[in-house]
Amino acid sequence: MNRFAGSRGFILAVVLFAVTLLGVASPGQARAAQTDGARLTIHNRICPSGFTGPDFYGTCHDTAPNPGLPFSISGPEPGSGTTDANGDITFGGLIPGPYTVSGGVPGEFAEVTYFCARRATPSVAFPFSVVTTGISVTLADTDDVVCDWYNSPIDLSGLPTATPVVEAATLTVYAAICPVDFSGESYFDECFDRPAEAASVVFLLSAGGVALTEQAVGDDGHAQFNGVQAGTYLLSDSVPGDFLDGRFVYCTFDGGSPVTYDLPYTENAIEITIGAGQAVACDWYIEPADQG
Predict the structure, then answer these.
(1) Could you tell me the pTM of the whole model?
(2) Which of 15, 34, 191, 283 places its Cα 20 to 30 Å from the Cα of 77?
(3) Which of the four pLDDT bands, split at 50, 70 and 90, describes residue 158?
């Protein structure tokens, strides 16, 4: 009798121990999570200090997990837990209804940006609202929703944030006038030593249909654009097409391999992409028409 009583006591202790283990939530998994019902997953990520977007996913999602932070939900099926090594936490087995999610980095230390979507359609936003402590979502019985929770730390040093210095580029255009009897065999041999007269050719740099700046050639046939920001531009000249047979443009970028543009007389512009800090040099050969 005593032997059976001891066995029953041992079995009861094992059962109680197992129940206790099941009641402890591991990181990334909320307590009492079930396989049935709705599911809500939080992806908590840290962005660079002061980051304001726009590409939160590309900048922060796969590079900066935020593990070990507490999150909780209140609503029909409350729960709590901490983010796992990937910065994720899942609340499962939820009955339908509205839920408020709280947690992450305290608000006085970070700005928070949110995005929610069903797991099956990650690019389609799922409705949520921002509340004082976090966000609020309403789940149906089969919803499987993932919310990205991006924390951008606030700089508390009191020092102004340094603005990154983007090195400006330079663009030098040399205009040369080919002879009327130009053979077309070599622009360099037949035209290079014939610079355009000072102020006879004006070059215009524009972008997005907006004229930005213009420069006339000097005594040596060169027009110089300084402080050019990285981007794609249209570079055009002021010579009327009625007096030309065509144009040939030869550009190098930081002294690299040349890019050439062969323009008919009806066109006076090239599209040119300039990188930060590049030194761009273009020889712009103008072929006058024989007016005789």
Answers:
(1) 0.46
(2) 15
(3) low
